[in-house]
Amino acid sequence: MDTLEIGTLSVAVVGATGAVGQEMLEVLEARQFPVRELVPLASARSVGKKVRFLGEEVPVRVLDKNSFRGVDLALFSAGAGISREFAPAAVDAGAVVVDNSSAFRMESDVPLVVPEVNTVALGEHAGVIANPNCSTIIMVMALAPIHGLSALRRVVVSTYQAASGAGARGIDALNRELRGEEVTESPFPHRLAGNLIPRIDVVEDNGYTKEEMKMVRETRKIMGLEDTPISATCVRVPVARAHSESVQVTTADPLKLEEVYQVFRDAPGVQVLDDPRQDVYPTPIDVSEQDDVYVGRVRIHPDEPNTCDFWVVGDQIRKGAALNAVQIAEEIFKGGR
């Protein structure tokens, strides 16, 4: 943000009272994003609520199509339906939209961006930039360094996704289950406490879930891997916050372990925690509320020198949503629009 003075932009946050919206406010404040005016927007049921920003209580406004007059940046995190309805109004009013929903991710004229990986795509935006799925962001942060070392030929990932990926209702359901309460209205199809649920979102015709296909399609778009086989299995686990992923990649050339470690160490936004004999590796508790993603359990397959396995953990509310959106905004406004 070197070229902008503090307090130069009017910033709207759509879904300001939700978990990701609240995190966006924290990230904007922590990174000293140049907010002149904060416009927190939410549904009518949030009337009377206030959000805290820079030490002040800011009243939440009801979202409508006239909410974006004078707004420079609109951060959306209120679901795909809301984004489809109101993002065009924000663009028409002159705002740049960074959308955290799935509404525009696969549209050909909308950049899908992880700033550490494909900032160049921002030059193609026409008012809307899409934030990828949280699990996709966490994975590509670790895939991109290896792809720079040797072209990816195959990716297989299994995710271990926290309850908070289902929003506040997910956390509430898990906490109530852990207290021994019976939960009749849960975002999960089965009890989560003490359990694993190998289905997140609806099942598509090919047998994969929508969440799994998001990881496939979005990774291909972000990294330009249109013809690369990618397979995902997404599992909900009884963890409060931060998603974990077991990833196997096969590359064009044989890999050396030290080279893989080095590209991870050199990658922006990636930290290496890897000494498993001393029980040093990333865990969701340790990674929660951290900006970076963390990799560990890195190993080269003993029978396939072109294949590398690793474990990556990232806070899906932070880097997987709010932080990534704000980083996109920083890139957009660094030199103007």
- The top level CATH class name of the largest domain: Alpha Beta
Largest sheet: 6 strands, parallel
Straight-line distance between termini: 12 Å
**What is the beta-strand fraction?**
15-25%
Query: pLDDT under 50 segments (min length 5)?
Result: none
Please work out how many helical segments DSSP would assign.
9
Task: Give me the CATH architecture of the largest domain, please.
Answer: 2-Layer Sandwich
Q: What helical percentage do the residues reach?
A: 25-40%
Sketch the topology as an H/E string, one letter per element: EHEEEEEHEHEHEHHEEHEHEEH
**What spatial order of strands do you see in the largest sheet?**
5-2-1-6-7-8
User: What is the CATH H-level superfamily of the largest domain?
Assistant: Dihydrodipicolinate Reductase, domain 2
Number of strands: 14
Rg estimate, integer Å: 20 Å
- The overall pLDDT average reads 95
User: Would you give the CATH topology of the largest domain?
Assistant: Dihydrodipicolinate Reductase, domain 2
Helix/strand structural class: alpha/beta
Q: Which overall shape is indicated by the principal axes computed on the Cα atoms?
A: globular
- Total domains, how many? 2
Could you explain how this protein is built, in words?
It is built from nine helices and 14 strands. The protein is globular. Helices cover 30% and strands 24% of the residues. The model has no long low-confidence stretch (mean pLDDT 95). The protein is α/β, with parallel strands linked by helices. The strands form three sheets. The chain has a six-stranded parallel sheet with strand order 5-2-1-6-7-8, with helices on both faces. A hairpin with a 6-residue loop joins β13 (293-300) and β14. The two termini are 12 Å apart.
